[in-house]
From TrEMBL:
Coiled-coil intervals, chain numbering: none
ATPase AAA-type core domain boundaries: 160-226
Protein name: ATPase AAA-type core domain-containing protein
Origin: domain of life: Bacteria
InterPro entries linked to this entry: ATPase_AAA_core, Bact_Antivir_Def_Nuclease, P-loop_NTPase
Length: 270
């Protein structure tokens, strides 16, 4: 399912070349991205991939969006947002969506690490559990009922058990399971952080299944070769001025890994 079909950045340039976020994309020749069920924004640090995810999240008013405070007389961030344009996808009957699903969200690596740290602090487990349901739309009455429920106490026991049994990486995978509901658009910013290569592949396989079987759409910022090689994705290379669509094996970061292990090939064959 494709909920967000396309996103266009503004063409306008400013006389001051250092104004954020105009400066991030000023040298990009291509301003429009077309999305697939899974789309990857690849690039090294400061290439703009994370900034674009937050811009999309603000444009669509997604859960998890990060607002940038204005400094000075002009709110350049929100001005930039208002100059962007997007096109939503179509449902199974060919009708344009009027909005993305309500449970769609922008999930950053620091969000996942925050959840892991929260799990590791028993004193805030209940407060955190209720807070997460408030973010999902539970009103005060529903939250009060949740505090008394057997479901909540059982879930807290499971979290405590996971805390004792699993590593940070394994807990991160469990947190992703909780986040990734069916029928939604998810923007993921470097979800591989804290995950071993094996768990990165497991997460990528979960994402593939979500797109294939659970009507999810994903836009992901990553430069992990394990994610890039496992995801059935369209890949935009943000390191190029034209933001070219590339195969994963042609990307600089992946080639670095390939060349490194090829250089040490004899050591693996001993």
């Amino acid at each position: 399912m494709i909920y967000l079909n396309a996103f266009r950045l503004p063409n306008r340039t400013l006389s001051n070349p250092n104004i954020y976020p105009y400066n991030v994309f000023a040298k990009k020749n291509e301003k429009c991205l077309l999305f697939d069920k899974i789309t990857i924004l690849y690039g090294n640090n400061a290439c703009g991939k994370s900034t674009l995810l937050n811009i999309i999240a603000n444009s669509l008013n997604l859960i998890g969006k990060e607002e940038v405070k204005a400094f000075g007389l002009v709110d350049y961030f929100n001005t930039f947002i208002n100059e962007c344009a997007y096109e939503l996808g179509e449902d199974d009957e060919g009708q344009k969506y009027s909005s993305v699903p309500e449970n769609s969200s922008y999930i950053k690596s620091e969000d996942i690490m925050y959840e892991v740290k929260k799990i590791q602090q028993e004193a805030v487990l209940k407060e955190g559990y209720v807070y997460e349901h408030a973010k999902k739309g539970y009103n005060k009455e529903q939250r009060d009922e949740l505090k008394k429920s057997k479901k909540m106490h059982n879930q807290i026991d499971i979290i405590k058990f996971c805390q004792e049994k699993y590593s940070n990486g394994e807990m991160s995978l469990q947190v992703f399971d909780d986040y990734l509901q069916a029928n939604a658009l998810f923007l993921l910013d470097e979800p591989e952080v804290s995950l071993s290569p094996q768990n990165q592949v497991l997460l990528a396989e979960k994402i593939n299944s979500g797109a294939r079987f659970f009507n999810n759409q994903f836009i992901i910022a990553t430069h992990s070769p394990f994610m890039l090689g496992t995801l059935a994705a369209k890949i935009y290379n943000f390191d190029s001025q034209d933001m070219d669509v590339c195969s994963w094996s042609k990307l600089e970061n992946v080639r670095y890994f390939y060349d490194y292990f090829k250089k040490h090939q004899n050591e693996f064959e001993e």
